[in-house]
Design goal:
Keywords: Metal-binding, Zinc
Largest sheet: 4 strands, antiparallel
Family: Belongs to the Gfa family.
Number of strands: 6
Strand order of the largest sheet: 1-2-3-4
Helix content: under 10%
Shape: globular
Protein name: CENP-V/GFA domain-containing protein
Number of helices: 0
Domain CENP-V/GFA: 1-79
Strand content: 25-35%
InterPro entries: CENP-V-like, CENP-V/GFA, Mss4-like_sf
Length: 99
């Protein structure tokens, strides 16, 4: 990762991370070069913030969250004069209980 965000460390697999940038080249998208999973990205809208795949964090699972807002990835806030963020929908996890 170019530069560093205070408090963020990769504990395992840093040697396997690959990076891609597209369009404006301002965001950095990191992924595992072996399995392809998206791990994290440096945000285009705020390069001092990271977006992190919760499935890559020790002790957390995507299923720990009852609801997750999904943003429209094709309409970026920086491309809109009012810097609006567009929501595509909400993912909900409803545990099945004893199966």
């Amino acid at each position: 990762m170019t530069g560093s965000i205070q408090g963020f460390e990769v504990h395992e697999g840093a040697d396997k991370l690959a990076t891609y940038r597209f369009n404006t080249k301002s965001a950095e998208h990191h992924f595992c070069s072996v399995c392809g999973i998206y791990t994290h990205h440096k945000r285009r809208s705020n390069p001092n913030e990271l977006g992190i795949n919760v499935a890559c964090l020790a002790g957390l699972s995507p299923f720990d969250f009852e609801e997750v807002v999904v943003y429209d990835g094709s309409r970026h806030p920086a491309d809109d004069p009012q810097h609006r963020t567009y929501t595509a929908g909400v993912l909900r996890f409803d545990p099945a209980g004893d199966v």
